[in-house]
Amino acid sequence: MKKLVYPFILAFLFFSCKKNSIPKTSNVNKVLVEKCYVYVGTPYQFGGASKSGMDCSGLIFTAFKEVGKDIPRVSYKQAEYFEEIKKDDINVGDLIYFKVKSSRINHTGIISRIENKDEIYFLHASTSLGVREDNLLSKYWMPKFVKATRPSI
User: Fold this and answer.
1) What is the DSSP code string of 56-115?
2) What 3-state class would DSSP assign to 48?
3) How far apart are CA 123 and CA 109, in angstroms?
4) Could you list the pLDDT tens digit for every one of the 153 residues in the chain?
5) Whose CA is closest to 94, among 76, 111, 73, 116?
6) Integer-rounded Cα radius of gyration of the chain
7) What residues are annotated to the active site?
8) How many Å apart are CA 43 and CA 72, to the nearest integer?
9) pLDDT at site 153
């Protein structure tokens, strides 16, 4: 009987003491980010979804299409497609949404890297500079942030 109790106690302690940490980024999320990085420097084009010109939702739409998943084409519909997550749970590969001079979501991006609690970077298509990486926590972007979602494929 004692031989059965010890492994059970050890297993119980191991699993009960395990930290509740942020889930690790899935390989699919990493691939999505890699697909978006390819377009850095691509000029902005409203409605565009190619290397010759791209808008923010086109960037996300194209990355998903390249991994074989069809999602809505426009940002406010993309924002409703996947399950919302808390801002504090954001991880690489999560999608983020903004209201920029609008009453509804009209801008999107994908978390590309997290350096520390003050540097959370995302890829998106800027109207002035094309596809680029910016800090979500900047004075410009944070007030416009609406929500984040975690993609699933």
Assistant:
1) HHHHHHHHHHHTT----SSHHHHHHHSEEE-GGG--TT-EEEE-SSSSS--EEEEEEEEE
2) coil
3) 5
4) 555 444 444 444 444 443 333 344 568 889 999 999 999 999 999 999 999 999 999 999 999 999 999 999 999 999 999 999 999 999 999 999 999 999 999 999 999 999 999 999 999 999 999 999 999 999 999 999 999 999 987
5) 111
6) 19
7) 56, 107, 124
8) 22
9) 73
Residues in a beta bridge with 107: 98
User: Hey, what domains does the chain have and what are their CATH numbers?
Assistant: 23-150 (3.90.1720.10)
Contact 55, 47 (CB under 8 A): yes
Dmax (CA) for the chain in angstroms is 71
Distance between CA 7 and CA 97 in Å, rounded?
47
Threshold 0.90, pTM exceeds: no
Which pair of tokens denotes residue 129?
């500079």
In the chain the first and final C-alpha atoms are separated, in Å, by 46
The residue count for the chain: 153
